[in-house]
Design goal:
By secondary structure, the protein is mainly α. The chain is built from 20 helices and 2 strands.
Length: about 475
């Protein structure tokens, strides 16, 4: 019965389709392969979630080898929802991806791109579904290595620097996680997560367990880009191809948050993880600083993708704030914001990708008046931006409202002020872009060039590629050259 194999199909489908994309080579065949795979995986994820809600948690023994000797996939309501999120983002992204990939990457490298994207999807799926701690590291490396390649395919050389920076920091994070898993094995003699959950609390006073927890938290905090371990994220999002930015923003950091939740609450236990000093004091401080400082930094970014990359650091801070409250209301609010932010930020970066496809630039000046020519993309950006801010009637408002209530119920007035202050800063940096899109005038640069044709003889007088710019030259620069 095929329903019994739903858990493993979530990983097997993209894993087998990735090399097929390379074998087919031609761009159109690779795209169709990735597209069909993503949609079949989405259907499988919907059926899997329905099965879990109906029957309860599902365990799947790979190769018929029962745990703890064999590797087991364990699916419950939470990771079934995360699997659905990853599948849905990929399925919606791939119809959008083709023209963007052809413009930013080129047809000759498109098959490589789709293969790497499917491998990244495989890694994220595996991290979410597996019930083996070492397998978490294996799938983490699969997703990370493919992500480095995806970022490096960006349209300019800065993408190579961003990929290298992420490679260094991602390797450090993965190493810390592996060392933590090694210490867990040394203390318990097992890698099965169900066994670890039973044995780690009994050995929580051992130095090996305490060391394992410290290494794991540092490593996973780097992967989820928790302040101040976020330095890889702004460049990676800003210089990666538009499709890659959408996928990473909507899935990668969210899966890292899920892994952190699974290890801290299920394996180590909330009592050990948050007792006395550790995370109960450290996480709220780091998350609060991330919300405020990343939002302030976003205000001064001229590169729009980089601006919303810093916004992602702030939004991760909101998620961690909810988790660190250690209350049912706070945990619910954090998980809800995880889903809402994935959807809102994915939609926002998709809208920015459409603008980049038409305008050829992501600078603020390039967006001047773009809403007149691209009203649908601009409207999509506004809706996603309002959800990011937390305006009423949007999904983002619901999760931020629950975060605020959870903070007040816990007596954390300072955290409540951070949530409100961060939302006001988000309104400011979103509004700056909206102002450029709708209220800035497009300079009649072509008229200026016709009047003074000898000023810039090398400029190609094509139809408008950049709002308010000619090949990246702003109206102010033109005026200074003319005068």
């Amino acid at each position: 019965m095929i329903a019994a194999h739903f858990p493993v199909l979530q990983v097997i489908l993209p894993l087998t389709a990735a090399p097929l994309c390379l074998l087919l080579r031609r761009e159109v065949f690779a795209w169709w392969t990735a597209l069909v795979t993503a949609w079949v995986t989405l259907v499988n994820a919907v059926l899997l979630l329905d099965r879990v809600l109906l029957l309860g948690p599902i365990s799947y023994d790979l190769g018929g080898w029962a745990a703890p000797l064999g590797i087991v996939y364990r699916i419950d309501a939470l990771n079934a929802l995360v699997l659905l999120l990853i599948s849905a983002v990929a399925a919606l992204l791939l119809p959008y991806a083709r023209l963007s990939v052809l413009r930013e990457i080129g047809g000759e490298r498109a098959a490589l791109f789709y293969a790497a994207l499917l491998l990244c999807m495989t890694g994220l799926m595996g991290m979410t579904a597996t019930g083996d701690a070492f397998n978490v590291f294996v799938f983490l490396e699969i997703s990370s290595l493919s992500t480095y390649a995806l970022i490096a395919l960006g349209p300019d050389r800065r993408a190579l620097t961003a990929a290298f920076q992420y490679l260094i920091m991602g390797t450090l994070g993965g190493t810390f996680i592996l060392i933590g898993i090694g210490f867990m094995y040394a203390a318990t003699g097992t890698l099965n997560m169900a066994d670890l959950a039973a044995r780690l609390p009994l050995a929580e006073n051992q130095r090996a367990v305490q060391t394992a927890f410290a290494f794991f938290i540092v490593g996973i905090s780097l992967k989820l880009a928790l302040f101040p371990l976020h330095l890889w994220l702004p460049n990676a999002y800003a210089h990666a191809p538009s499709v890659v930015t959408v996928f990473l923003a909507a899935t990668a950091t969210k899966v890292a948050v899920y892994v952190m939740l699974r290890f801290t609450f299920d394996l180590f236990g909330a009592h050990h993880a948050f007792a006395d000093v550790t995370l109960a004091r450290v996480f709220p401080v780091l998350a609060g600083l991330g919300v405020m400082l990343a939002s302030l930094t976003a205000l001064y970014q001229d590169h729009v993708k980089r601006r919303f990359a810093y916004s992602s650091v702030a939004q991760i801070g909101y998620i961690v704030l909810g988790i660190a409250l250690l209350t049912p209301a706070g945990l619910t609010a954090g998980l809800l914001h995880l889903i809402n932010h994935a959807l809102a930020k994915g939609a926002l970066f998709m809208a920015l990708g459409c603008l980049y496809y038409r305008l050829g630039s992501m600078s603020m000046s390039a967006l001047a008046g773009a809403a007149r020519e691209m009203p649908l993309s601009a409207a999509a950006f506004v809706i996603a931006g309002l959800s990011l801010v937390g305006v009423p009637l949007t999904a983002g408002f619901i999760s931020k409202w629950y975060l605020l209530l959870a903070s007040l119920e816990h007596g954390q007035w300072l955290l409540a002020l951070v949530i409100v202050g961060g939302s006001l800063l988000a309104l400011a940096y979103v509004w700056q872009v909206v102002e450029q899109l709708y209220f800035e005038e497009v300079a009649d640069i072509w008229g200026i060039l016709q009047i003074v044709p000898d000023v810039l003889p090398s400029v190609d007088p094509r139809p408008r590629h950049c709002a308010g710019t000619v090949c990246g030259i702003t109206p102010n620069t033109l005026r200074s050259l003319i005068t």
